[in-house]
Amino acid sequence: MPSASCDTLLDDIEDLVSQEDLKPQDRHFSRKHIVPKVRKRNTQKYLQEENSPPSDSTIPGIQKIWMRTWGCSHNNSDGEYMAGQLAAYGYEITDNAADADLWLLNSCTVKNPAEDHFRHSIKKAQEENKKIVLAGCVPQAQPRQDYLKGLSIIGVQQIDRVVEVVEETIKGHSVRLLGQKKSNGKRLGGAPLDLPKIRKNPLIEIISINTGCLNACTYCKTKHARGNLASYPIDELVDRAKQSFQEGVCEIWMTSEDTGAYGRDVGTSLPALLWKLVEVVPEGAMLRLGMTNPPYILEHLEEMAKILNHPKVYAFLHIPVQSASDTVLMEMKREYCVADFRRVVDFLKEKVPGITLATDIICGFPGETDQDFQETVKLVEEYKFPSLFINQFYPRPGTPAAKMPQVPAQVKKQRTRDLSRVFHSYNPYDHKIGQRQQVLVTEESFDSKFYVAHNRFYEQVLVPKDPTFMGKMIEVDIYEAGKHFMKGQPASDARVYTPSISKPLAKGEVSGLTEELRSRLGKPLNSVSCASATGLDAACSRTALCLRRLRQDSALRVSVGLALCALLLAFFCRNL
C-alpha cells in the first residue's frame, strides 16, 4: 500500500501557524478590551425554576414514590426502613399510585395469592409506564422468573441501598442487589437497625431481632429468600428500642421468621434478650413477642413464663402447630411432634393465667388423610384457640412439598371450610363481659368508628374515639364481646395514664435521627420545633446517607487507583 508523503516536513506543530495569525499573547490582550453585555433576568422566577425542576426531570431525589407491602411484620418493617431512607433523601412517599413516578413493590412469597397480587401489580405498573423497583421475598428467592426480567431488584438484606437502586432505576437502568450482609465471613442479621424509617403507625415500632431460621420445612418458600438464622446483637436491639421510645413509641413488636431461635448463632438466647429489653421499656409502654416454633421454645419454658408474666410484656405468644398429625408433621419436617406442642401450650396456660396463644394450621398438605385432618379438628375443639390462622395449602415452586402427590383442590377447600366452621363455633370473650381492664390505645379501627386498644393479653378492645386516649393506657369496662374483639367503655372514676415517654412523631415523619446527627447541623435535640422537625429529619438523614455513599465511592476510587497502578507497574516491568 503506498505511503502518504508531504513535500515539506514540519518540525513542530507551531509551524502550522503563519506569521499573519494572532499569537496567543495577542489574543489574550484582545480579551481585555471586550465589554460584556449584561442580560437582565427575572431573579425571582429564576430561583423558583432552579428550586423546582420540571415534573418530567430525571434528576434523582425529587420524584414521587408509591409503596405497597405484602406479608408479615418483618416485611412491613423492611418497608418502613425503605420509605424512611427515600424520604430522607428527598423523594416524596405518596399514597396515590397514579400520581407516582415509581412503584416500589415489597413482596411476600408465603402463599400463591400474595405472589399473584404482586405479579398483577407489576403488570399494572408496566401498563401505566411507571418505573418499578421490586423488593421482598419473591424476587430474592427467584430473581430469574420471566415476569421479573429487566426490572430492578433490592434484596432483603440490601434495603440500606434502596436509594441507589431507585436512583439508577429513575435514570433508566436496571439494578439488582441480592447479596448477603457479612462481617469477617459471618452472615449478619441484615441492614443496620439505625437507618431512617417512616413508621406506618408512629406509636408502634417493629424490630426484626433476626432473619432466617434453623428449619427446613418442605412447604416453605421464605427460607429460600431469608436463608439460615442470623441474629442481631443484643446491644443493637436494645439501642433501637431506646431510640423508639425517645420518638414517642409506646408499643414494640419483636418479629422474625422464628423468634424462639434468636441468638443460637451468636451464643445467646431469646430470654437473655427479653430481660435486657424490659429494663428499657418505660411505664405505660408494652412489648409484644412474635411467632416462635415449638422446638426452640421448649428449652426456655420456665424463663419464658416469667417474662410473659412481666407487667410490661403482653401475655401473648404465637406458636404455629400446622397439623395435629405426627405423620403430616414428619412430612413437613417440622422437627416436633404434637406432644411437644401440647406440652408448650399446657405449661404456658398453667404458669401464665389468661395467656393468649395463637396458632396456624395448614389444611390439605400433601398426603393428609381424613383421619389426619380429624386429629387437627379435635385439637382446635379442645384448646379453643382465640386466634387461629387457617391456611389452605398452596404448593410453592421449588419446594419439596410441591413435588409430592397433592390433595385434590376441592378436598383442600372443604377442609378449610370445615375447620373455619369449628373455629367460629365458640366465642372466646363472652365470659369477660363486665370485667374492668387496663388497655393501651394504639390505632383506629378499619371502619373508623372506634379506637383499637389491647389489654394485658393482647386481646382487641374497641373504645370510643376520644383523641385524648390515643397512645395512652386507660381503664375500661367491657360491655360487649364478639368473635375477634370486645368493646369497652372508659371507667368514669379511672384516670388516663400517660406513658413516661416523648411526644410521638407525626404520621409520615422520618424517624431514626440521633442527637449526633442533629448536632452536625447545629440543632440541639431539645431545640427542634415541631414545624421544622420533618425538614430537619430529612436533612439529617440525607446527610448520613450521603456520608455513607461518599465512603463507598471513596473506597471504589481507591480500589480502581490501586488496580491501575498495578497494571502500569506490570507494563513497565515487562518492557525493562
UniProtKB/TrEMBL annotation:
- Matching Gene3D superfamilies: Methylthiotransferase, N-terminal domain (3.40.50.12160), tm_1862 like domain (3.80.30.20)
- Residue stretches making up the Radical SAM core domain: 199-430
Q: List the transmembrane segments.
A: 555-573
Please list the reactions this protein catalyses: N(6)-L-threonylcarbamoyladenosine(37) in tRNA + (sulfur carrier)-SH + AH2 + 2 S-adenosyl-L-methionine = 2-methylsulfanyl-N(6)-L-threonylcarbamoyladenosine(37) in tRNA + (sulfur carrier)-H + 5'-deoxyadenosine + L-methionine + A + S-adenosyl-L-homocysteine + 2 H(+)
Which GO terms fall under molecular function for this chain's record? Answer: 4 iron, 4 sulfur cluster binding; metal ion binding; tRNA (N(6)-L-threonylcarbamoyladenosine(37)-C(2))-methylthiotransferase activity
Provide this UniProt record's keywords sorted from A to Z: 4Fe-4S, Endoplasmic reticulum, Iron, Iron-sulfur, Membrane, Metal-binding, S-adenosyl-L-methionine, Transferase, Transmembrane, Transmembrane helix, tRNA processing
Q: Which domain of life is it from?
A: Eukaryota
TRAM domain span: 430-492
Answer yes or no on keyword Disulfide bond. no
Which stretches make up the MTTase N-terminal domain? 63-171
Name of this protein: tRNA-t(6)A37 methylthiotransferase
